[in-house]
Amino acid sequence: MKGSTVALTSKRPAWMERPTWYGLALKGLALAFIVVAVAYPFVSVVATSLSTDREIVANGGLVIWPTDPTLDAYRVIFAGGDVTNALVNSIFVATIGTAASVCATIMMAYGLSRRGVTGGRFILMIALFSMLFGAGIIPNFLLVKELGLYNTFAALILPGLISAFNFIVLRSFFMGLPAELIDSAKVDGAGDFRILLRIVLPLSKAPIAVVSLFYAVGYWNAFFNALLYLDDTDKWTLPLILRLYVLQGQPMAQGEAFSGEVPPPQLAIQMAVVVVALVPILLVYPFLQRFFTKGVLSGAIKG
Amino acid sequence: MTVEAPEKSAKAERPVVRRKKATLWERLKRDKVMLLLAGPGLLYFLVFHYLPMLGNIVAFQDYQPYLGFFNSEWIGFENFTDAFADPRFWSAVTNTLVIALVQLVFFFPAPIALALLLNSILSSKIRRFVQSVVYLPHFIGWVIIVSIFQQILGAAGLLPNVLESLGMPRYDMMTDPDAFPWLVTLQLVWKDMGWGTIIFLAALLSIDPQLYEAAAVDGASKWRRLWHVTLPGITPIIILLLILNLGSILSVGFEQLILQRDNVGAEAGEVLDTYVYFNGIQNGEWGPSAAIGIVKAIFGTALILGANKLAHFFGHEGIYRGADK
After folding, report:
1. What is the Cα–Cα distance from A243 to A231, expressed in whole angstroms?
2. Cβ(A165)–Cβ(B313) under 8 Å?
3. Is the pLDDT of residue A301 over 50?
4. What residue of A is the nearest CA neighbor of B28?
5. Which of A46, A218, B124, B217 counts the most CB atoms within 10 A of its CB?
């Protein structure tokens, strides 16, 4: 990694030829296209969710910028119906799930972070080997049923409690902490658990933050487990509601909020649900983005 | 704060000096806190990753939920022959392979191309901006992504409207069975092309800049440097990812496909994983579906090992690096 600074600075090295104008233009166009292709759909979804019926009809279903923005669609979905309920469920699962996953991952990563722990190598192999082989959909489903987790929120959390990937990221970070710190704490009479609380955790805030965000985003997006294991509609999380209303096109009850007035169009309501599901991810993304390149790389290269 | 360096120093300290006198009991006592902390994790992996592997025995049973694992009748390989006799199974295999092939040809190279493009940007400000935009879709769930695509390409979306205003017939890609493999590949490119660049960018950064300089001094043009310096520099990582890709060739994204299968009908939209889901969990054909899961896993492992052998044969490292592990 020593020479990488040359490529990182914005100065062109002396041996490199000057770029041609058409080469630069082509590059610029390609990048602009990619950025617009990624960013435009988000803008469009938000714009449509704020639009009125008239505007959506006038634009043939897709609004690029609302001239007369209204929050009616959001009033409908927050009026206490399915979406509100699903939102509460999703927040609950994501919060409890992230807390449980982070605790379990930290404990396991720390427990296996020291060389020479009796049986540590064996436990490590068990965890890593699980990345290579999955058991398949049917046995996992039957296991969840046998354990009595079917149709509970625990079924969304326990089967994916520890991600081997996040475990590797944390473990390799813990292993990289200076051994002198831990040794001197030991000399001072601190036990292994106290070392974890007083020394390892305070030094590992950044990687723990990354891992937490990865878990949180994972729980927030989880569709597969919710589809497999949740039966009652009042336990449904946002992804399931999103599928019902947006992809399967079930019309949403308007409730009392709009009796006598012009109700917001279904399309605006659908896009409002998408925005509600999207916003938490967009909120944590800047924090994730600051850390993840490093975190992902250490896991990928050392994995 | 690189995470690499400490690992290296830890390796240098090997072999670990172990006190020979300590008995197993003494060592367990010494490590008890560490082992207790690792315990719940171990339990998790055993229960949720290894126990289900045992659950695969239903592939050899006429499994009935009310009889359970222990009382269901053993029927040998009948589930396998039943599964293979189902034409819907073969249709799912074909769809899976077609989608996997389209993704291999059109999705796999996309992050490499984007990484090369990003790497050629000298202004780190622009590069960081583009990176932060293109990484974002990776964190968005498939339900949202399919919803967004519905907005852009669906019956009332952007594409049909643009086509109409250009005087062409409206075209709804979301429900066109023939376009399905292309649609799912397009979605995958949108979601993960940016994210996929990370690993290639890292590989590109690790190429020694002196190689470029030396090549330039020797008169190699930009394209020759790309061909003779850059590409060889990232070949190992390309091969590694290609091998891993081959191993998962039979599992094209479950969430993505199950959300869209009904748009185009089972004939075009059914892949192995959705077939297992509908046939097994919805229709209660537990045995045959588990059998397909086993065949899939064996096939995937065989592909990985085979491709790895092939990579070794051509003098590349492949996935594992000799006797290190």
Report:
1. 15
2. no
3. no
4. A118
5. A46
CA distance A110 to A33: 45
H-run or E-run covering B74? strand B73-74
| Residue B61 φ then ψ, to 5° | -120, 160
Q: At A188, is the secondary structure helix, strand, or coil?
A: coil
Mutate to test the interface with B, among A45, A138, A213 (most CBs of B within 10 A): A138
Closest Cα to residue A287, out of A207, A218, A174?
A207
Chain B neighbors of A60, CB-CB under 8 A:
156, 161, 164
Question: For residues A23 and B122, what is the distance between their CA atoms, to the nearest angstrom?
Answer: 14
Cβ atoms < 10 Å from Cβ of A103: 12
Predicted pLDDT at A293: 54
Eight-class DSSP state of B269: H
Identify whether the C-beta of residue B250 lies closer than 8 Å to the C-beta of residue B236.
no
**In percent, how much of chain A has pLDDT > 90?**
25
Nearest to A60 among B126, B134, B161 (CB): B161
Pairing, β B61-62 against β B73-74: antiparallel
Please identify which residue in the block is written with the tokens 């590059």.
Answer: A27
Structure tokens at A94: 């994501």
Beta-carbon count within 10 A of A244 CB: 18
Distance CA(B134)–CA(B137), nearest Å, equals 7
Residue B214: which residues within 8 A CB-CB, separation 6 or more? none
3-state secondary structure of B61: strand
Global pTM reads 0.84
Lookup result for tokens 């054909």: B285
Residue A205, classified by CB atoms within 10 Å of its CB into exposed (0-12), middle (13-18) or buried (19+), is exposed
> Which residues in B lie closer than 8 A to residue A41 (C-beta atoms)?
148-149, 151-152
CB A90 within 8 A of CB A220: yes
Question: With 0-12 CB in 10 A as exposed, 13-18 as middle and 19+ as buried, what is B226?
Answer: middle
The distance from CA B288 to its chain's CA centroid, rounded to whole angstroms, is 25
Q: Is B322 left (phi over 0), alpha (psi -120 to 50) or beta?
A: left
What is the average pLDDT value for chain A, to the nearest integer? 82
In one-letter notation, the amino acid at residue B250 is: L
Find the DSSP H helices in B107-230. Answer: 109-119, 124-135, 142-153, 158-165, 180-205, 209-217, 222-225
Distance of CA B16 to the CA centre of its chain: 36
DSSP H or E run through B62: strand B61-62
Task: Residue A243: list chain B partners with CB under 8 A.
Answer: 143, 259
Using N-to-C axis directions, what is the helix angle for A164-176 and B4-12, rounded to 10°?
Answer: 70
Look at B4 and A239 and tell me if their CB atoms are within 8 Å.
no
